[in-house]
Amino acid sequence: MPVGTRGTVKTLNPQNLIELGAEVILSNTYHLYLRPGHELIEQAGGLHQFIGWNKPILTDSGGFQVMSLKGLRKITPEGVRFQSHIDGSYHLFTPEKVIEIQNALRADIIMSFDECPPFPAPKKYIANSLQITLDWARRGKENHKREQDQALFGIVQGGIYEDLREECARELMKMDFPGYSIGGLAVGEPKEHMYRITEFMDSILPVNKPRYLMGVGTPMDLLMNIENGVDMFDCVMPTRNARKGSVFTRNGRLSIKSAQFKKDFRPIDAECECYTCRNFSRAYLRHLFSVDEILGMQLASIHSLHFYMELMAKARKAILAGNFSTFKQEFSSKLDSKCHGEGER
């Protein structure tokens, strides 16, 4: 799912996203609450109407963003009191308030409010945090007013501890959410912990409901976690990296700003059929970045999102053909080590 945190995927318009094959985009409750405000968006007819997007939208609850505020927030059983990173104003997010905001936004898929513990953190802290997340999930579900047109997902927390992950998942499953998110696995933990936990969760979560791994990740992260039973992903990596001139190709990442591309009139990827690769050269993109033209960021973003969308389409095809493991191995063998880096949320 391309990430449009503030109601837009940076540098791209909805038509760009439709042409790229995006079916769902993600926006963020915390940011939209602060600006322009959920009341205004509700008056506009909801987030779809406000941003001109007629396909599904998923909204994150803001739990990760509030966690990231560190010294500007205080967590209590009631909720989270925090200061805006914009103007320092004080606010309170309770699980009821977060669901109220998302009800007003009218997103199609919404998230429970959770406490997202950092990595590393003591097991005792994560166990206490887990109980808060479960209580907030119950309270949020009870306050959900749009069950007929909004799917509310519970978020599985528990850090890198399998017993805590299982406890959280089983308690959420008793609440019977229509889908389950796996949170807290894009907060700095080593990759092997992420893969171990998602593989473990594959044996716990119901097979007939979607599983969403939040904030992940690199191309290989996607394939590894698809093999571990995950259905849905979001990450800022393809667009954020593209805006900095780093794009994905079948052979790894390519820094288009490099001087070596000054007279390189080939496309970013000769095998790619995206709008950028059909029409523009590496030399032209390097020029755009060197003179700070916005078009460079847009064309790079189009290419990288196309790369991700095509990868996921091929993964679905491989699953249906029964040869996903072979597909994953062949894809991995083409990549250099630069394409196995850290994801971002």
Describe the structure.
By secondary structure, the chain is an alpha/beta fold. It has two domains: 14-234, TIM Barrel; 240-340, no CATH class. 45% of the residues lie in helices and 13% in strands. It has helices spanning 14-20, 29-34, 38-43, 47-51, 63-68, 95-105, 123-142, 162-175, 191-202, 219-227, 237-243, 275-279, 282-290, 294-321, 324-334; strands at 25-28, 57-60, 73-75, 80-83, 90-93, 109-111, 151-156, 179-182, 211-213, 232-233, 246-249, 252-255. A seven-stranded parallel beta sheet has the order 1-2-6-7-8-9-10. The protein has a three-stranded antiparallel beta sheet with strand order 3-4-5. α10 links the parallel β9 and β10 (232-233). α9 runs parallel beside α10 (219-227) and α10 packs parallel to α14 (294-321).
Outline, from the CA principal axes?
globular
- Report the β-strand fraction as a percent range: 5-15%
Per DSSP, the total helix count is 15
| CATH topology description of the largest domain | TIM Barrel
Strand order of the largest sheet: 1-2-6-7-8-9-10
Specify Rg, calculated over alpha carbons. Answer: 20 Å
The CATH class of the largest domain: Alpha Beta
Poorly predicted regions: 336-345
Would you list the SSEs in sequence order as H and E? HEHHHEHEEEHEHEHEHEHEHEEHHHH
Would you report the number of β strands? Answer: 12
Structurally, the number of domains stands at 2
Structural class: alpha/beta
